[in-house]
Amino acid sequence: MVHKHIGEPIVKKRLEQPYVGIPIVATVSEQDRVNSLIAELVDWLKTKEIKPAGRPFFRYWCAEGLEKKYKMEVAVPVMRMVTGDARVVGSCIPGGCYVTAIHKGHPDDVEKSLNALEQWALREELNIDKRWEGEAEIWNGRFEFFVPISKEASDWNKWAIEIAFLLTPDDAA
């Protein structure tokens, strides 16, 4: 066990997955504003008569500054590429090998699980596909996928989130 809120990490291959998302810049303290975009995105899909191909997720592109402002997308997978508009973008989860683990517990504790998974990957000599530009940490594939939860969904301590970091192509073996 890597950390009390995280399951055993694994490396697994993912196929490319189209999605639609709403880009946003936010801090961890703005989680309510970020979460509210899920309903907006689901409504957008309904108006376009497009069915989701899975559960919502967050894609993180970049974190910078002392207050950790995240450039991210609130997203929903779809069956095929979709043209966005001024608010919604169409994109893809990159195919490749990912180091993943399930965070169990309150979403406020996910940061500890993210750090634990990254430390585990370092100990295993796996290279997460990211780079630094000055103080900005930029990721090619950092995701938080919402795992189906029971009827106790209103109890935040029973939530589960799959954390996934894309590995560099050299580690895709």
Short description:
With 173 residues, the protein is an alpha+beta fold.
Q: DSSP strand (E) fraction?
A: 35-45%
Query: What is the CATH H-level superfamily?
Result: Regulatory factor, effector binding domain
What is the CATH third-level topology name? Multidrug-efflux Transporter 1 Regulator Bmrr, Chain A
Global Rg: 16 Å
Total strand segments: 9
**How many domains, in number, for the residues?**
1
Domain AraC effector-binding: 7-150
Organism: Planococcus versutus
Protein name: Transcriptional regulator
InterPro entries: AraC_E-bd, GyrI-like, Reg_factor_effector_dom_sf
Blueprint (SSEs and pairs):
Blueprint: E1 10-14, E2 17-26, H1 31-47, E3 57-64, E4 69-77, E5 89-93, E6 96-104, H2 110-123, E7 130-133, E8 136-146, E9 160-166
Q: Can you put this structure into words, describing what you see?
A:
The protein has one domain (10-171): Multidrug-efflux Transporter 1 Regulator Bmrr, Chain A (Alpha-Beta Barrel), CATH 3.20.80. The mean pLDDT is 87. A hairpin with a 4-residue loop joins strand 3 and strand 4. It has 173 residues and is α+β, with helices and mostly antiparallel strands. It is built from 2 helices and 9 strands, in the order ββαββββαβββ. The longest helix has 17 residues, at 31-47. This is Transcriptional regulator. Residues 7-150 form the AraC effector-binding domain.
